[in-house]
Design goal:
The chain is an alpha/beta fold. About 30% of the residues lie in helices and about 25% in strands. The chain has 2 domains: about 240 residues, 3-Layer(bba) Sandwich (FAD/NAD(P)-binding domain), CATH 3.50.50.60; about 140 residues, D-Amino Acid Oxidase, Chain A, domain 2 (2-Layer Sandwich). The chain contains 11 helices and 21 strands. The longest helix is centred in the C-terminal third of the chain and has 24 residues. The structure holds flavin-adenine dinucleotide (FAD).
Length: about 425
């Protein structure tokens, strides 16, 4: 049965834009729209409490923070985030500190994703009076190839199907969402890459053991430390794909982290209770183009990049800036002065050029993640040739100023143009 004709459907509603998904991408689009006075509805399958506690990313690039700030979305972040100016590689049993701020004058912000989501929800609902509906079920997108698209869902309170007619749909529903499924198969392609490795992703109730991100390049596998807050630290351990987190006891995790991150003179790792332990099957994908008719995808709904270089949320934000601004320019041309002169990401592309403008940065970040993956995992590939070239790449970062500058630019996402 056509859900638009469901017998249990109350009167349809209308909004200029329906945003599907309240992650960093969807909430940023929603906030940009509300600031310009565009009426929109954000639909989210989870509860507010859940999304405000879901830990994921933490490293945000400086350009993204500036772009959030220009849209009035970075007040808490600027007050509370840590500034990181360096990272450290550990290989050959030694510490090799890489000070990217010295090379570029730029830094990273470290602010847990769930805090950013909390800020964005509060701003959208409490300050900008935005309409957000949590806990919705069975979201379906209709007629995006016509001038009258709509989105339907089951309301968690009444159990009734609700239809919202709109001018545009922003598909911001992440890697497991539904919006990209309505793209006509003959009009898009999905480019996918599997690394053939797993990462055990861990959150420890422990302060970081170093003041920066650590990359342990070890013959038994990669290990990483990503500070999140003074109380919580994220760690990663390379493991066989499909490995079961249950195989990794507290003792085994900490023994392996200590071994792979060992370096002469380095302080002992600070152990703590493991509050998250999940297996990541490392892969990337890119959907091209990121739009069809009146549906525009943003963030993980359109492209996934394994957390190798901490790029996913940054790309989601970049898409959201371009999409939010382009929708405002289209729907409220008089309100465009609002972001005039601001950092619109990679140019004022409009809705027409949205997909192409996003994809330039997406592919650049994908390529960097591939490169960095070889560095992380080459020592453990069991091939002397790859181990040798990995070490050569690592040494070059510390012997060639040009190679170091190129790495710093990519790591910070700081190129002049993409
Ligand atoms: P999401 O955050 O996934 O948001 C999508 C939202 O849509 C969710 O709230 C979901 O509940 C909702 N949804 C799903 N289906 C539907 C539906 N049918 N209808 C309505 N709503 C729906 N990135 C970085 O930049 N830096 C990092 O340091 C970093 N570290 C990471 C560490 C880990 C362990 C992981 C897993 C990821 C990390 N990332 C990092 C990636 C980053 O978390 C994602 O790229 C980011 O969350 C993408 O944002 P998004 O808004 O596109 O999607």
């Amino acid at each position: 049965m056509n859900p638009l004709e469901h017998p249990n459907t109350p009167a349809p509603q209308r909004a200029s834009v329906v945003v599907v998904g309240a992650g960093p991408a969807g909430l940023t689009v929603g906030n940009i729209l509300r600031r310009a006075g565009v009426d929109c509805v954000v639909l989210e399958t989870e509860t507010r409490e859940f999304i405000e506690r879901r830990p994921r990313a933490g490293v945000i690039e400086e350009w993204a923070v500036r772009a959030l700030e220009q849209r009035g979305l970075a007040e808490n972040l600027l007050r509370k985030a840590q500034r990181h100016t360096a990272c450290e590689f550990r290989f050959d049993g030694r510490q090799h500190r890489f000070s990217y701020q010295e090379l570029t004058g730029r830094h990273h912000f470290v602010y847990p994703q769930h805090l950013l989501v909390t800020d964005l929800v509060r701003e959208y609902t409490d300050v900008r009076d935005g309409d957000i509906r949590f806990g919705v079920r069975d979201v379906q997108v209709h007629n995006v190839d016509t001038g009258r698209p709509s989105v339907s869902y089951t309301c968690p309170q009444s159990g009734q199907r609700q239809v919202v007619h709109c001018d545009f749909v922003a598909g911001c529903d992440g890697a497991r969402g539904v919006t990209r499924r309505v793209l006509p198969p003959e009009q898009y392609r999905v480019a996918r890459h599997d690394y053939g490795i797993g990462w055990l992703s861990l959150l420890a109730e422990a302060p970081p053991s170093a003041d920066c991100v650590l990359f342990g390049v070890h013959e038994d596998g990669f290990a990483g430390q990503m500070p999140r807050s003074p109380e919580v630290t994220r760690y990663y351990l390379q493991c066989p794909p499909g490995d079961d987190p249950a195989n990794w006891s507290h003792e085994r995790v900490w023994a392996e982290l200590r071994r792979r991150l060992a370096a002469a003179g380095a302080p002992e790792l600070v152990e703590g209770r493991l509050i998250e332990k999940r297996m990541l099957d490392m892969h990337d994908y890119v959907v091209e183009p990121m739009a069809s008719g009146r549906l525009f995808l943003a963030g993980d709904a359109a492209h996934l990049v394994a957390p190798i270089a901490a790029k996913g949320m940054n790309l989601a934000l970049h898409d959201a800036f371009l999409l939010g601004d382009a929708l405002v320019a289209h729907l409220m041309p008089d309100a465009c002065g609002d972001t005039a002169g601001s950092d619109r990401g990679d140019g004022d592309s409009g809705l027409e050029g949205y997909s192409e403008a996003c994809l330039r940065r997406v592919w650049d970040y994908q390529e960097f993640s591939q490169w960095l993956s070889d560095v992380y995992h080459g020592q453990a590939a069991g091939e002397p040739y790859r181990a040798g070239t990995t070490l050569a790449r690592l040494r070059r970062l510390f012997t060639s100023p040009l190679a170091a500058a190129a790495f710093a630019e990519q790591y910070l996402g700081a190129a002049e143009r993409y």
